[in-house]
Every structure is written in structure tokens, then in C-alpha cells.
Amino acid sequence: MAAARGGRVRAPSGTRERGRGLVSAPRQDPLRDPRFFADPYPAYDRLREGCPVQRVPTGSGGHSAYLITGHPEARAAFTDPRLSKDTARFFADRPSDRDLHPAVSRTMLTSDPPAHTRQRRVATPLFTAGRVRELRPYLTRVVDGLMAAWRPGTEVDLVAELAVPLPVTVVCELLGVPESDRATLTGWSHELFDATDTHRVDAASHRIGDYLTHLVETARATPGDGPLHSLLRDCDEGGLDRDETVSLAALLLVAGHETTTQFIGNAVLALLRHPEAFDRLRRDPDLIPGALDELLRYDSPVGVATFRYSTEDLRIGGFDIPAGFPVLIAPGAANRDPAPFPHPDRLDLDRDATAHLSFGHGIHRCPGAPLARAETEIALRTLLTRFPHTRLAVPEDSLTWRRTRLTRGLTALPLRLA
After folding, report:
1. Where is this region: Disordered (predicted)?
2. CB 107 within 8 A of CB 246
């Protein structure tokens, strides 16, 4: 099948059958429907079954993008150099009413090699397997401290009392953010992912960018040997200028905790929804590291990856994408593709789910993945060990989800500890 410019889909000879042959592209943005935020998987299934690469409307004003929902197609798109992440280049000759701070809009995530290569070379050593092993005692102390006041028979909000503060504490330590500022920064970060209010997003980006610019400039003017000073030395040695250094700090702050927060919350809810899996990990917590890939696949903390665009006409998995179009890759959909993952709506801890795309793939794969896995593993192990009979404190249908297509996560997860 190939997606035609007019929004129709047909099945040419020589391509594998994945849809119904001829389908219509959605008339409205399928990623802004209120039902999508509550449960995106039926929409993902319809889109993928219709055509795993198709043109869809985005927002208002007649704009559109190519949305990739199939697993092999998404995996190929993540590594295709003809899909650029350089958003500044894409919008250079296109009028826009957006006003994002450069530190947020021009990060490593929005660049191509060689600029991307230079910035990633600085970021990657922060999250190597060896470095994360060194951090594990610290991560355990943070989790223990956050759960110190938890008692059986009481209620807690796992999101507010563990899933948010754990990664926030870790990344803020790395950046030298004072404890008194961390809650404010967390609030700005949440606003940055608000899919319903672009003005609010833009304003939050400036608050974050201005704060981090001041933080970096203050650290440069004050000699020291803390984590932020060490990061600044790495940035200098890596050839990053001031703006690139601030943008790396912004990326570490936002990406360093948002997805981990959703990972922890989604994983706990998935286990509560599947008591057999919960009991299995409760009886043998050493199985938790091996269960993380399936938990990531089952309810990905990243629904739709950040913006790409086609620099030339190309084909992804036999599907045509013309030059000059935005391209959205949906790991949340790809991870539920039944081709690589039979019975994808089932949480199966025995499944080999290592091919999931929750951390991306290729040169833009999340460098912080080892840290996110370690934080989630320690959080789950501590919860299941201390409170092995924990359950939801509210009806499941009363849970609410954040209104953003980029990440998927709960606004709160009330638990009754036991």
C-alpha cells in the first residue's frame, strides 16, 4: 500500500497486505480526540490497520502530517537520514505564531549530525551502564526517603509522591537545581506537554529556558566541583557553546524526568490491572528487570515521538512520503503492532519485548534509557516488597490521563497500601 497525496490509500502490487485495501484518511486530527487521551490504543489500531503510514490532519488551519503506526515502518523511519529532526530548518520559510524559547526548541532532539553528534557525545557518558550502577545506591536512598512515611492501610498518590519526585530529584541533583526550585520547575515541565494550550506551552518554555540560562551563567561565574560544574566542563571539552549548553540542560531536565514519571505510573497500573503478573513479581522481585521491556511495550510512556520532516521524496516500508512534510512516528502504536507482538493487548511477562520502540531507535534513541530503567526497577521492587498487597484506592474508570499526545501518563494514581 502507498499513501497518496490526496489522503487515500491503495494497495499496489508487490507490497505486503496490512490493511483493508482502500481507506479514507481521517478528516479530523485523530490525536486530539478526548477519547484518545484516555485510551489511545483503539485509535492506534484503526490507523495501523487502515494503513501503517498515512497522511492525517494535525491541529487546525488545514495542516497535515504523515503518521507512522506500524512497527517495521516506525523502526525504519527512526533510522532514515532523509527524515530530519532540524525543526529550525523546516520552519525557516514557514510563518508560525509559536514562541518557544530556543533552549527548548533547539535541543539535541531537534538537530541532525554533525551538531547532534557533538551534543550527544557530551550527554551519553552521563548515562552509561557503569555510571548508572554507581548511582544505584543513591537511587535506592531517594526511593527509601520518598516512601519513608508510607504505612499499610493508608492512601498515597503514586504519581505525586513517587513517580514525579524520584526522577526530578535525580536530574535536579545532576544540574545543581536548589531543592526550593524543584517543584516550580516540575510544574513548568508539565505545562510544556499540554496539548490543549500552545500559549501555555510557549510561556513554560521561556520560564524553563530563562531559569536554566541563569543557572548555567551563575555556575560559570562561581568556581566549584559539583555535578553541574562537571557537566559544564564536559560541555566545554565537547565544543558546545553557551546556547547549546543551556539547551542540553533543558533536555536533561525535561526528558530526564517526564518519561520516567510516566514509565513508573504506567507500569504500576499495568501490574494492578493484571493481578497474576503483579503476584508473580511480588513473589520473585528478581524478575522485575526482565519485565521492564514488556511493561514499556504494553503502555509506552512515549506515545508519539517528537517532530521529523521529509527532506526528499522517500518510501518507508513500501509507503510513499513526499518531500517537505512533517512525519510523526508513534511508538505507542508500533508497540501494539500484532506482527512482531502477537496478542499485543495482553501483558505477557514471558514475551521477548526487547524490540519495543519506547526509547526510540537509531541515533536519537534516548541516552537516558539505562537510568530510567534503573529508577523504575528500584521503585517497583521497593513498592512490591514493602506493600505486596497494594491495590487501587479508586475505581479504575475514574483515573484521568494527561492531555498530550507526546507522552502517556496519569495525572494521579491513588493507591491503598497493604
Report:
1. 1-35
2. no
Count of residues making up the chain: 418
The values of phi and psi at residue 401, to 5°, are -115, 150
For 100-138, the pLDDT digits (tens) are 888 888 889 999 999 999 999 999 999 999 999 999 999
Does pTM surpass 0.70? yes
Please state, in angstroms and rounded to a whole number, the distance separating the CA atoms of residues 254 and 131: 20
| Cβ partners under 8 Å of residue 180, min gap 6 | none
CA dist 350 and 334 (Å) reads 19
The overall average pLDDT reported for the chain is 90
The whole-angstrom separation of Cα 204 and Cα 188 is 5
User: Measured in Å, how far apart are the chain's first and last C-alpha atoms?
Assistant: 52
Q: How many CB atoms lie within 10 A of CB 232?
A: 19
* Radius of gyration for the alpha carbons in the chain, expressed in angstroms and rounded: 21
How far apart CA 384 and CA 396 sit, in angstroms, is: 20
Separation CA 229–CA 219 (nearest Å): 7
Q: Which helix (H) or strand (E) holds 83?
A: strand 83-84
CA 312, 315, 316, 319 torsion-angle sign: positive
Supply 343's cell numbers.
496478542
**How many Cβ atoms from other residues are within 10 Å of residue 26's Cβ?**
20
